[in-house]
Write a structure and sequence with these properties.
Strand order of the largest sheet of chain C: 4-3-5-6-8-7-9
Order of helices and strands of chain C: EEHEHEHEHHEHHEHEHHE
Shape of chain C: globular
CATH topology of the largest domain in chain A: Rossmann fold
Strand order of the largest sheet of chain A: 3-2-4-5-7-6-13
Radius of gyration of chain C: 18 Å
Oligomer: heterotrimer
CATH topology of chain C: Rossmann fold
Structural class of chain C: alpha/beta
Number of helices of chain C: 10
Number of strands of chain A: 15
CATH class of the largest domain in chain A: Alpha Beta
Number of domains of chain C: 1
Chains: A alpha/beta (364), B alpha+beta (78), C alpha/beta (256)
Radius of gyration of chain A: 21 Å
């Protein structure tokens, strides 16, 4: 994966979870509220060690339920705040996330996805794609979702996510997984203080006589008002489509498109190399924003390639968005592993070969 | 005896009668008329209010303003 | 303390605090919520802290508390008001922060947040309105509902073997070292209202000491839920609630 260098000289070998936490401190986070859960407890532990030396408030809450509500309160009071958890804890946060989205509060939520459903496993998975991109909490809302695929991106996306959250007054999520959280890679960290804060006039900071009182709420009993809020949110989400990000690898002459995010994309990048060695003209489209989803680029490639193979560590979630974007123009296939198992590049190539054979048999 | 009086906002009063129960002078009573919300509102029924503020203290709807005659010594200071 | 402004030869000795908005209260006639709202806003006005106070409203009859209190406020999810208040106070430690909750919010769904907020000694004021019933949703049983009390989900009276005992949450949290001042008050008489006002005043002053949580339980009525007139409900309250939830201080600061 191409490593970004922000022009800074410092390069360190860091674990994904710790790079993310360090980036957050450099992003001038006012507070972190969270709860331990494997595989992301290092994020909490990093904050506990570092924040007293640097700046910001750390509080281990009594549960993820309490943590997300502390996030709501602090974000509503104008703070730059974040939390992190893993799948079952993120499920507990869903009510709070719905409230945060409805009250239009900026914040960062990190999900270090583990295998599920239920208590599951501590191994990595991508089974929370639906939860992250389609809701998870109740009502018509969306998180801005970024999917890193390297330790460098674990750090960089903290800045990107906060910037987007504050620009749109919307919660943003970094959807990582257990492997990205634990792996150690070279990372060039963003510069401390390079994400300035802009004040706002909507936070509950104590009402001066110069303005009306600020109220942070998601309760609009009259349906006309509630619909009005929903129109506001939907209009915002249509503007957020401008923030779509993706990466194309070897797609210029590709006959086949792999579509994968996060860890699966790393696997697929290797699969592209292996496939090319075998003469298969395969490329990879890697969504970086899962919401907004890169529908347009996939739709454009649906005019050029023969088929799509979506590779995920779940039972088939992003493949639905790929299928919608392709809109019937080409076949869309799926290769997945579940419950914390990771597909290998060889598995992906074998799957490609098997699909190619099936297609040519059916064409004979 | 100190004289006092109260002003009760008729259309805010919900006729809950807590002020009537709290008044040591039994100065308050429910009107036979109803306000715009359909409640019988409370009004002064006697002239012996002392401005003790008990009614306003228990009034849930903040419908009552209480007035009290100043003591003679205070009048001179003003 | 009452305002003294000369008008027509009479002094105004009580008028509506300026910290309440012009919106009429939607509460049922005689409801204790509105008295507590009023007293709280009187104190905010008298202490001159309107510009520095942030409140957190619960889910329950007082969900719209922010329509009446002219201060910055946040609406919390059911049970979470003390966690939301924690978030606000940690970010803005120099402001006055209070949470306001009913018995379901604080002692059922929010029990974990209640205990841990006090356990951490968060420097906020927690106001707990205990009327032994869930008013907003139509009169169901609350954790604080008395044994034998009839509610819509205890139509034959609360039976301890089926539904457990009334939960004396205030007594529990008074034992936590993080609790600085814990008291139980009411608003059923003028004297009780004056005492509540003193308790709220003390609590807000204590916030500046950063020594822990102030917790005020207000034993209150629910005329609609209890199916009584307001005057009857206050009599019932005095006869039936006080034996289990006696008024007075449960914990006072030792270093005062």
């Amino acid at each position: 994966m191409e490593q970004k260098n922000n022009g800074k000289t410092e390069a360190r070998l860091m674990k994904g979870n710790e790079a993310l936490a360090e980036a957050a401190i450099r992003a001038d986070i006012d507070a972190y509220f969270g709860y331990p859960i494997t595989p992301q407890s290092e994020v909490l532990e990093y904050f506990t060690r570092e924040m007293p030396k640097r700046h910001g408030i750390f509080l281990q809450a009594e549960s993820e339920l309490a943590a997300i509500n502390m996030i709501y309160g602090a974000a509503g009071a104008g703070g730059r705040v974040m939390t992190s958890s893993s799948s079952p804890g993120i499920s507990l946060m869903q009510e709070g996330i719905s409230y945060i989205a409805s009250a239009q509060l900026p914040c960062l939520i990190v999900n270090v996805n583990r295998g599920g459903p239920g208590l599951g496993t501590i191994q990595p998975s991508q089974g929370d794609y639906f939860q992250a991109t389609k809701g998870g909490g109740h009502g018509d809302y969306h998180l801005i979702v970024l999917a890193p695929a390297s330790v460098q991106e674990m750090a960089d996306f903290v800045f990107d996510a906060i910037r987007l959250a504050e620009k749109y007054r919307n919660p943003a999520m970094i959807l990582a997984d257990g492997a990205l959280g634990q792996m150690m890679e070279k990372v060039v960290l963003p510069e401390e203080g390079s994400l300035p804060k802009h004040g706002n006039n909507w936070a509950t900071v104590g009402k001066p006589s110069s303005r009306e009182r600020n109220i942070i709420t998601s309760l609009y009993i009259q349906p006309e008002k509630m619909e009005g809020i929903n129109f506001e949110l939907q209009e915002k989400y249509s503007r957020i489509q401008d923030e779509v990000r993706y990466e194309e690898i070897n797609m210029e002459d590709a006959d086949i498109a792999l579509v994968a995010f996060g860890l699966s994309a790393r696997v697929c990048q290797k699969a592209v190399d292996l496939g090319r060695e075998k003469g298969i003209k395969v490329g990879l489209i890697r969504p970086i924003t899962l919401y907004p989803f890169p529908k347009k680029v996939i739709s454009a490639f649906a005019e050029k390639v023969n088929f799509f193979l979506t590779v995920e560590m779940n039972a088939g979630q992003m493949v639905e968005d790929v299928t919608l974007a392709v809109n019937g123009k080409r076949p869309v296939f799926f290769k997945g592993r579940m419950g914390g198992m990771i597909p290998s590049p060889e598995d992906v190539v074998t799957e490609l070969e098997s699909i190619i054979e099936k297609i040519s048999i059916s064409q004979d | 005896m100190i004289k006092g009086t109260v002003f009760i906002e008729q259309n805010i009063c919900k006729g809950c009668e807590l002020c009537i129960a709290a008044c040591p002078q039994e100065s308050l009573g429910l009107s036979s008329k109803i306000n715009i919300n359909g409640y019988r509102y409370v009004e002064l029924i006697k002239d012996n209010c002392t401005g003790c503020v008990n009614c306003a203290l228990v009034c849930p709807d903040v419908a009552i303003t209480v007035y009290r005659e100043p003591k003679p010594s205070m009048k001179k200071a003003v | 303390m009452e305002n003294v402004i000369t008008t027509n030869g009479f002094d105004v000795v009580y008028k509506k605090p300026a910290t309440l908005t012009d919106t009429p209260f939607h509460y049922c006639p005689g409801c204790g919520h509105s008295v507590v709202h009023r007293v709280l806003m009187e104190v905010v006005e008298e202490l001159g802290i309107q510009e520095e106070t942030i409140g957190v409203a619960p889910v329950g009859c007082s969900v719209f508390a922010y329509h009446y209190m002219d201060i910055d406020m946040q609406e919390a999810a059911h049970g979470r008001a003390s966690a939301v208040a924690t978030g606000i106070k940690r970010i803005l430690p120099e402001k006055y922060v209070f949470s306001y909750q009913g018995d379901g919010d604080l002692a059922a769904i929010g029990t974990a947040e209640t205990i841990h907020t006090v356990n951490r000694g968060e420097n906020i004021l927690m106001i707990f309105i205990n009327n032994a019933i869930y008013g907003m949703t139509g009169g169901q049983m609350a954790p604080t509902t008395l044994l034998e009390q009839v509610t819509s989900t205890s139509p034959y009276g609360r039976q301890h073997d089926l539904m457990g005992y009334p939960l004396k949450i205030t007594d529990l949290i008074a034992q936590l070292p993080g609790a600085y001042y814990v008291t139980r008050q009411s608003v059923h008489t003028a004297i009780a209202v004056r005492k509540l006002k003193k308790a709220i005043t003390k609590s807000l002053e204590y916030q500046k000491l950063n020594k822990g949580t102030s917790f005020i339980e207000v034993v209150s009525n629910c005329p609609s839920g209890w199916k009584m007139t307001p005057v009857e409900s206050n009599q019932w309250l005095a006869e039936n609630m006080f034996p289990l939830y006696p008024l007075g201080d449960l914990k006072v600061p030792k270093d005062k």
